[in-house]
Amino acid sequence: MTSHDVVARARRIMGTRKVGHAGTLDPMATGVLVLGIERATKLLGHLALDRKTYLATIALGEARTTDDSEGEVLTRAEPAELEAIADAAIQAGIAELTGDIQQVPSAVSAVKVDGKRAYARVRAGEEVDLPARPVSVYRFDLLGVRRGEGTLELDVMVECSSGTYVRALARDLGSGLGVGGHLVALRRTTVGPFTLAAARTLEQLEEEPALSYDLAAAVAAAFPRRDVDQATARAVQYGQRIPAAGMAGVYGIFDPDGRVLALAADTDNAARTVVVLAPA
Q1: Does a structural domain hold residue 217?
Q2: Is residue 110 part of a domain?
Q3: Counting Cβ atoms within 10 Å, is residue 90 exposed (0-12), middle (13-18) or buried (19+)?
Q4: Is pLDDT larger for residue 95 or for residue 240?
Q5: How many angstroms separate the CA atoms of 94 and 139, rounded?
């Protein structure tokens, strides 16, 4: 199921065409996908979803064309080679891929090459050579090691910046250990401030169409909060300039009743509304 498939299902369930998503989730992955409904679609382009957490399973011993289990096998290590890999070597390889690193995205990623998605070029039979780019891997924790006859699987937790490919981490870990590696399972547990704890399955939504967050709660979770008095609130609703808050980046403006009015950002000595959510 693609992220677009999820949006299509949500449109039918919620009875509206105004549904969008932020932070695309790979078809092979499960976990958190942030959807905006009706007025909340205006928030999606402004959400700071630059920190994500994943639970993943990495198989060592095979390199694949897609860096995951859906691709064709490129190389396969001998069972003896896998048996020779000590847990300490795995930990050292993970440490090399933690922090601020240069990562070559997977060839089947959504990165654009001359205006066309890399995965579309690969599926059309083209060779794709993507340049490395800086990403941040804040945590790369080894949770478990499973050794079988000719198999070696790792359960890991990865907390990383937006634009980091966990399948590329699997590929590079296997490459560094000299045996190849690919991703076999991926579950996203957090996207920015949004977690699995607040998420609902599509089946749950069909049984009870409801929001995980109303508009005010979503803005309060995702942006710094600025509370204003009634006169200032009225000015915001009429699109008038108000004094700057002295806050960095985009923030939410709330009236005395706790209703969210707008997203705004400071420019010089005034606050500029980015999106007005409750116009007069």
Answers
A1: no
A2: yes
A3: buried
A4: 95
A5: 10
The residue written with tokens 């000299």 in the block is: 178
DSSP 99: E
pLDDT at 108: 66
Instruction: Report if residue 58 sits inside a domain.
Output: yes
What is the domain-level CATH number for residue 228?
2.30.130.10
> What is the number of structural domains in the chain?
3
pLDDT tens digits for 219-231? Answer: 999 999 999 999 9
Out of 151, 173, 207, pick the residue that ends a domain: 207
126: amino acid identity, one letter: E
Closest CA to 264 of 232, 216, 214, 226: 226
Marked catalytic residue, from 26, 67, 68, 266? 26
Q: Which of 93, 98, 241, 250 is nearest to 178 (CA)?
A: 93
**Could you confirm whether 26 is annotated as catalytic?**
yes
Q: Do 80 and 167 reside in the same domain of the chain?
A: yes
Domain membership of residue 152 as a residue range:
52-191
Q: What is the pLDDT of residues 12-47, one digit of tens each?
A: 999 999 999 998 888 889 999 999 999 999 999 888
pLDDT in tens, 91-123: 999 999 999 999 998 876 666 666 666 666 666
CA atoms within 13 A on the CB side of 102: 3
- Distance (Å) of CA 266 to CA 43, 229, 244, 246, 252: 18, 18, 5, 7, 12
Same domain assignment for residues 9 and 72: no
Both 120 and 23 in one domain: the answer is no
Residues 172, 235 within the same domain? no
Q: Is residue 216 part of a domain?
A: no
The pair phi, psi for residue 181, each rounded to 5°, is -165, 155
pTM, two decimals, is 0.88
